[in-house]
Amino acid sequence: MIAERFLLLHLPAAADSPIGWSRVSADGVDSSGDDLLVIDRVEDDADARVIAIAPATDVTINWAELPGLAPAQARAAARLLAAENSIAPIESLHIAIGADEADRDDRLIATVSVDHMTSWLARAQALGFDPDAVVPASLLVQRPESGYVRADIFGQTIVRSHDSAFADEPGLTELITGDAPIADVVIGTELLSIFADPPVDLRQGAFAKSRRWQIDWKLVKRLVLIGAGIALATLLITLVLIFKYGADADRIDRETRTLAQSVVPEARDTQSAVTALDERLAGYRGGGAGFSNSLAALFTAVRRTGNVELAALDFAVDGSMKITVSAASPADIAAFQQAMQAMGFSGTATQPQSAAGRQTLEMTVKLP
């Protein structure tokens, strides 16, 4: 999109000359002056793009083949070429390169004195203007397909061909063009497109315009709204999950109570149903450790004790076992009692009795 207004700063070739200015729009040159120091500020200047026009006599334009290089690499290569072709020290030169054009293998290279760039920008900034771009005047004439063209623009006469652009100077122009004819052209509204997208901007590298960091409040507001939306969505999801989990828990509780009441109809709620089922289960397996666990422990104690036989067993609902064992000697009886105690049983025992040459003992034991 082409900007509607431009404020042009006409940089002088002489350091002691004032900076001229022009306001340009689609209607042409709206106003102009010879000294930027006394410019009348207008409201439209705030929206205008500030373009500084560098004198054609102070900027050398060349083209060189720099295919496929990034801007920084192309600028470094251009500096090497400038060092070979210039008598001035490379440290005193500022090199700028144009965009890589798809229809050309070469790149535009603009060379200007570092002192000139420093002076131009310092003077403009001292007057309250920081140019958005610095464009060589020699590139304000569009490149012809063939031959040479000449145009007067903002007080400068420019000669342009397909691969050259320079200020029209007696002797120099004839030396470059030879006997080739030069067609005079008039510059019109095509300047707007050049100002909007210059073929080369001298504000590169060390002279690139610094961008002041500013808070984008519209973006901040948008991010806050997005964050609030995410937080609200997260809260709603959490509330839905809580409601769902609560509903599922109530359903499971009802199903549990219904299933329990099919076994213990007297239960009126889940807790009473669980208590009644525990009591019934205890009745089935017996108290204490239950019949199976108690019997397994008893048989283990019998196997571990030699010369001991189980003569009688009675298991009570409370988990206690009344057992009668016979052994070859009192020592075997004592070993059996120790084995039962080692497995956690406690209880009472009668005095051993002798019968048929064996010792008989009655015990009542239970796991706590």
Fold and architecture overview:
- It is a single-pass membrane protein.
- Keywords: Cell inner membrane, Cell membrane, Membrane, Protein transport, Transmembrane, Transmembrane helix, Transport.
- It is found in: Cell inner membrane.
- With 368 residues, the protein is α+β, with helices and mostly antiparallel strands.
- The chain has three domains: 202 residues, Nucleotidyltransferase, domain 5; 66 residues; 80 residues, General secretion pathway protein M, EpsM (Gyrase A, domain 2, 2-Layer Sandwich), CATH 3.30.1360.
- It has eight helices and 17 strands.
- Strands 3-2-1-4-8 form a five-stranded mixed β-sheet, with helices on one face. Strands 13, 14, 15, 16 and 17 form a five-stranded antiparallel β-sheet that branches.
Widest beta sheet: strand line-up: 3-2-1-4-8
**Major sheet description:** 5 strands, mixed
Task: Indicate the structural class.
Answer: alpha+beta
Question: What is the CA-based Rg, rounded?
Answer: 52 Å
Roughly what percent helix? Answer: 25-40%
Total tally of structural domains? 3
Number of helices: 8
Mean pLDDT across the residues is 85
CATH class of the largest domain: Alpha Beta
How many DSSP E strands? 17
User: Could you spell the SSE succession in H and E letters?
Assistant: EEEEEHEEHEEEEHEHHHHEEHEEE
Low-pLDDT residue intervals, each spanning 5 or more residues: none
- The general outline is rod-shaped
CATH topology annotation of the largest domain: Nucleotidyltransferase, domain 5
- Label the CATH architecture of the largest domain: 2-Layer Sandwich
Strand content: 25-35%
User: Termini distance?
Assistant: 92 Å
